[in-house]
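Many introductory courses stop at the sequence. We go one step further.
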Amino acid sequence: MRGFLRRSKSGIGIVAFAIFITALGAVEVFRPFGLRFSDLTGRIVTMDTMIRVGILTILVVGLNLLMGYAGQVSLGQAGFYALGAYVSAILSTLATRHKVLIGVADTWWWPWLAILASMALTGGFAYLVGRSILRLKGNYLAMATLGLGIIIYILAGQFEEIAGGYDGLTGIPRLQIGDFKLWPPQRYYFLVWGAAIGVIVVATNIVNSRIGRALRAIHAGEVAANTCGVDTERYKVQALVVSAMCAALAGSLYAHFQSAISPNPFSFRVSVELVVMAAVGGLSSIWGAPFGVGVIFVIRDLIRSRMEDILHVRGGEYELIIYGVVLVVIMIFMPEGLTSGIVSLIQRARRRQKKRDA
């Protein structure tokens, strides 16, 4: 009965969230009373920002599965993000850059196939690497994943002929279905958030399944889970593969959104930001992903636009410091993240109100 109620609440939440996201996109498309989406937020949050929030939501959902449920520390998620972006971008530009598979690689459906290939290749790479890396624990695992992310970042800048080097890879085609191009941004918005909601649905089903129970058991105590018959090695690798495939999907959508990529958006700093987003939203909460990403994006935009006016310094230089302060404050007052913390506050307020009424 409890499982049914949990699934019902998740379903209602997903439908409500999808309606909310659709309504925001409809404002930009139809512009009622001449209003644009950015007008609703005082131009702090734009349609471009919402697309980026959707892309990173996909990435952070995968990170939550790995860190929040399986309990495996990862500081190299940006590496899988980069791998997905570059594989999709390279395959999508075969016909234009390298004159390969002309007549096939320049069709409208080829970039979609490239996205699927990037997810499969990144998942396969995560499986091969994970069987060794996930034998490590604690700080050693964190350092190993950090090193993996840095290696991928460096390699992305070395292959100039294939990946464009540090100057980047340009000419990545926009996604389309037949003759219908998923551009300008208000069209791409619906694609990205459709994918994000789909990933949330899949992750929620995983969490509420037997696999989710096994992952929580591993997080609570790997030795105890092994003793109870849980194949900890297999489930940890599976969590890494799913997390990597989410990152690859996000990277592919980012590449086609930007129509150009370079190594800079996949640096160690991005991995730190992703961990902060996951922690702020709630590591053990799939629903924490969009809220954690949204909060950090708004804070970052405020830092960049307001810091120089207030303190006469460039905000970008102090982003990591402010992220650290935000993370410390959240961990002290809401260690379960914003979503679970706010729900707990509301429940405590209701209990107090009931006691007063009684």
